[in-house]
Amino acid sequence: MVLLGTAMGFRGDDLKDAKPSLLALTPVVRGMPVPMQPITCSLRTGKVNSFGWLRYSGFVRHREPHLDAAGALADLLVFTLNLTGLDILQKIQSQDTTWWGYRLLFKDLWHADKKQDHDALAKPLQSILQEVEGTPVVKTKVLHLFRDSGVILLASGGAGSELLSIWGHWARGTLQQAYLEKNPLSALVAFAIAAGWDQTSFMRRHITGRALISVLDAWIDSFLPGVRKLLGEVQARNARLQSRKPQADDKVSDRAAEGFLQTALYCGICFWQNLPFKTQRYGLSYVLHRLPAVANIMLTQEYLEFAQLSHVKP
């Protein structure tokens, strides 16, 4: 939550309303030597968005694996799809669009389709902050700390007020509201700074060694079973409906499912490429490596060689 909230600069209300159905991948940005793949989350709600403008926030992979928002999203999706029992994939399969209402962050299955109240998200973070600070933290301000931290992070990386206004959706005027905020990549430079890259050179010096190490499809499929096949089915159905040549069982065009499934598979790559670093840094406290599908692969010779390569090219 901390990494995602800080990277995307969400207000507390925006964070409470973030949904899996709003996730998507943009076209790959041709950074050198490693291409850059932004992940976006779109919103039509928010504190100052009274007209329901479509706005985007997002992030790219961080230079440091343990600070990687894409890795944090990967952990969240692996946990959600494997351990919570949430039926997103089943509903996509049956063309039931009620999954669009599911939230990324929820207390339990009974609250998955409800916007979380402030205390549900603020309480865990508040207890951590009070332990660190040693003094009470104002409860109503806790979730805004993500946004505050994002601004400080970007400003320290050289972001000017114009870039900050686009990233934080403080932009005003026709150009900003009608055009820039509708472009997922309008804040790309901010995404890069937040991910630890230099704003003047990230396009030509985007060096993420771990992203160069191939991940087997079978590893991703081990904890995202059926996602790859389901994506193909959804894409084919969407294409048929768009061309007005549907089959008898084609009910709805679900572009949200297409974006979510693509994001999930990409996050599967991020998960494995970050895993050697996370297990080394956090040890047994990083609980996702105990998933049977993950644990079994970690015992193989292929994974041992993969991990060695990862540490050679951090």
Furnish the topology, listing elements before pairings:
Blueprint: H1 2-8, H2 12-16, E1 23-25, E2 39-43, E3 55-59, H3 69-83, H4 88-93, H5 118-133, H6 145-156, H7 161-167, H8 174-179, H9 188-194, H10 217-223, H11 227-242, H12 255-282, H13 292-298, H14 301-312
Antiparallel strand pairs: 1-2, 2-3
Helix pairs in contact: 1-6, 3-12, 10-12, 11-12, 12-14
Could you walk me through the main structural features you see in this protein, from its secondary elements to its overall organization?
This protein is mostly helical and 314 residues long. The chain is 48% helix and 4% strand. Strands 1-2-3 form a three-stranded antiparallel β-sheet. The protein is globular and about 55 Å long. The two termini are 24 Å apart. The model has no long low-confidence stretch (mean pLDDT 87).
SS strand fraction? under 5%
Number of strands: 3
Given the helix and strand composition, which structural class is it? Answer: mainly alpha
Mean pLDDT: 87
> From N to C, what is the helix and strand string?
HHEEEHHHHHHHHHHHH
User: Which overall shape is indicated by the principal axes computed on the Cα atoms?
Assistant: globular
Span between N and C termini?
A: 24 Å
User: Number of DSSP helices?
Assistant: 14
